[in-house]
Amino acid sequence: MLRRLLFSSLNFTHFRPNSPLKFRPILFLSASSSSLNPPTRVFAMAGKDHTFTTSTSHQNKHTNRLASEHSPYLLQHAHNPVNWYPWGEEAFEEARKRDVPIFLSIGYSTCHWCHVMEVESFEDDGVAKLLNDWFVSIKVDREERPDVDKVYMTYVQALYGGGGWPLSVFLSPDLKPLMGGTYFPPDDKYGRPGFKTILRKVKETWESKKDVLVKSGTFAIEQLSEALSISKLSDKLSEEISQSALHECTKSLAESYDPKYGGFGSAPKFPRPSEPQAMIYQSKKLMELGKTGEAEKHLKMVSFSLQCMARGGVHDHLGGGFHRYSVDECWHVPHFEKMLYDQGQLANVYLDVFSITKDVFYSCVARDILDYLKRDMIGHNGEIFSAEDADSAEPENPTKKKEGAFYVWITSEIEDIVDEHASLFKEHYYVKKSGNCDLSSMSDPHNEFKGKNVLIERKSTNEMASKLGMPLDKYQEILGLSRKKLFDARSKRPRPHLDDKVIVSWNGLAISSFARASKILKAKPEDTKSYFPVAGTNPQEYMEVAKKALNFIKENLYNPQSRRLQHSFRNGSSKAPGFLDDYAFLISGLLDVYEHGGEISWLSWAVELQETQDEVFLDKTGGGYFNTTGEDESVLLRVKEDHDGAEPSGNSVSAINLVRLASMFTGTRSDRYRQNAEHLLAVFEKRLKEAPVAVPLMCCAADMLAIPSKKQVVLVGKKSLPEMEHMLVSVHAAYDPNKIVIHVDPSDEEEVGFWKEKNPNVAAMAKRNFVTDKVVALVCRDFACKAPVMDPKSLEALLSSGKAKA
Questions:
Q1: According to the lineage, what is the superkingdom (predicted)?
Q2: pTM here?
């Protein structure tokens, strides 16, 4: 009905959006049932080399309202001839006054296809004239306003079954969607209408059938609102689903596993961290049930996938960190943008596997990611930036930008720079004179990287060193020195654009990984050597990075009077308030900072933020959390998201946060946390039953909540004692997502006061077990504890032996 009404009103029989998935009607849509895929899959068919010329010589010929904005994405469009408005009442009023539709364009600063559409259409005077004469044009940074993006992306997904960025939607003056798609080329091609044709058709239809268009837009929003209005049918998740969801989720993932190249699913391959996280969690559970063979299979799928990713071109071998995704099945040729949310989550997955296997391969990759962030993505005041672009100017032609230009190599460059070890390096990274993007038909179907090389390790360092009869340390040293030479040379190239916006939610993900690394990485063998780009950082420095990022957020993006967050910062805080993800991800980061040795003030702030989250986002009757505050009338949908995609959903992370907080405290506070978690999971019971693979992290949360008694490790002693650090390292040495760690200094009045108010059991335990020059560890179930131990090895043995059961 929604699709039929839209298309009958447009009378545009042959129109199809240039979205990556096939057109299909959907009457009702759960907001998270369709994954967002890159629009690049469609446009590969055109066989076009997406090199585009920058318009630096004309960049100030035009200036529009975006020039006064702070968002890097909006500023990129400030000198387009299009008379852009930012999202706000001024634009809405102008559309009402002129009685014209709104053209809404949503993207982000590191989006390749957003750049393409800008150069092809928004910098074109002819296209700009059509937009200026017939529409009010609005630009939105999806990272700055995810709430606005969610409304219209949901609409496009409902109509076409998929979406991506740039998102292009036409709205009525009262913001109801009329039609939309993703990227549109400027002119008609391959039987598809171009952007100019679409503009003319929408204008004509608005003038001739305005009432029908407005009716269709109103109906679309009403239908989506109804479809997204989910509430709990009971007060808790059924026992059957709480026990089966994780099993069914990991079973589906195992069926989609690629045993040849690793990963779950086919190309293009995205590193969706919630998938390996669920597999690791299930592996631990199976091991505890004595199902060793199944547990090892689950872990092997994850570990092999992580190895393939780290050795592939999706990993930046010279600078560290990971690109967004791989266009082929073998993790070789990536879409080259780097996103903060990927780095934080992937570092945690590599840390998890290291804590299980003790294989330094995984700890080195985790360090590689964190050292990249530490070197390139952190501001002077500790803030962590958002992203680096896929596109950059070509070294040989600075007026042209091309995807991957910063990262790819020709053979002669490597031979000149690496010099005496060039042959070894070329063989190791599969470097060829003709270019190496030939491992898959999907890697480079239109020869955009002909003669270029994307570094990939097709064989392990052990195998390559053995082949040359060289000691492994010597071989790794040569590779490290060679990588450093190439890194230094690459640093002289034009860099990709840095989006230095600070997003609270993404900082929360990174803060978590930095905090966890500060203790987990101390469990590595003392003789472990580091090779570039791993910097050999003292793990304790990672905790300082986490705390500095938290301080930046607290000082710049938090109002202590209202106890509310703002969403983002660039030259000042954004107008957008904090969203659910900002609270949930930051609370998770704060809990990790505290549990890995941070001050009690960070735990106190987490508790405070959880109270605000419950006040502002919680559906107190229907259960679960809305993604927005509901206070902005221009945002037409208020949804409860569940899909764990490139980022986990705010509801999944909140469920885990609530379980953790309920385990830390007692009494009515603990009961309230647990009840909110139960109600949240009950809201998504249908999803957990019918499509658990869409919500891997929520499946883990359901299992966590179902565990009858919770494990607490309480450390009592002065924080200044070296033994406290040693105990913290020991308690975090093994992977166990179902334990929580409390550390309390009985001589610290602030800490004792906190625990007296929120969990008198802890305050009493601290008083009873305080030894002036020692740190005492107690392993408990629901705060019923076994005999205390006073040395790290005894604590590790107690945690690993299963003797912690009360």
A1: Eukaryota
A2: 0.92
